Amino acid sequence: QVQLVESGGGLVQAGGSLRLSCAASGRTFSSYVMGWFRQAPGKEREFVAAISWSGHRSDYADSVRGRFTISRDNVKNTVYLQLNSLKPEDTDVYYCAAGSKYFREYDTATYDYWGQGTQVTVSS
Predict the structure, then answer these.
(1) Across all residues in the chain, what is the average pLDDT?
(2) Do the beta carbons of residue 122 and residue 90 sit within 8 Å?
(3) What is the pLDDT of residues 7-65, one digit of tens each?
(4) Which partner from 7, 14, 59, 90 sits 20 to 30 angstroms from 122, CA to CA?
C-alpha cells in the first residue's frame, strides 16, 4: 500500500512558478513509477508528467514540456513537479499517482494509487 499526499498548490499570477510536492508513505516508494495528472471540473483527468523509479526517464504532455519539470527524491519518498511560466489554462487540481510499470504512463489506468489533489490557480 502507498499513500500519497500532495502539497504546494496555490494562487499565482501568469508567468509565475510553483513547486508541487507529493509525499509517499511506505518503504517501496523507489520501486514505483510516479506520475502527475490534472483535472478541471467536468473534464477528464489528463496526463502531465511521469518519472521512472530511478529518475532516469521522464515524459511530459506536449502542453507542459519545457515549462514543467518532474523529479523525485527516493530518500525522502517524495516526487516533485516544478511549474514555471504558468498560464491561466494550467489552472486545475493536480494529482500525483504511483504505478508499478513504466508503460502507457499517460494513462490513468496505469496507476494504482492516487493522492487527494492540490489546487493550482493561475490568474491572468
Answers:
(1) 95
(2) yes
(3) 999 999 999 999 999 999 977 888 899 999 999 999 999 999 999 999 999 999 999 99
(4) 59
Name the least confident of 32-36, 60-64, 102-106, 120-124: 102-106
Distance CA 63, CA 48 (A): 8
User: And the C-alpha cell for 20?
Assistant: 508541487
- Decide: 121 and 106 in contact? Cβ < 8 Å: no
Best CA proximity match to 71, nearest among 82, 62, 60, 63: 82
Decide if 102 contacts 57 (C-beta within 8 A): yes
Adjacency order of strands within the sheet including 18-24: 4-7, 18-24, 78-83, 68-73
Helix (H, G, I), strand (E, B) or coil at 10: strand
Per-residue pLDDT, 102: 87
C-alpha cell at 102: 513504466
Distances (CA, A) of 33 to 2, 47, 104: 12, 14, 11
CA torsion angle for 117, 105, 57, 118 (degrees, to 10)?
-10
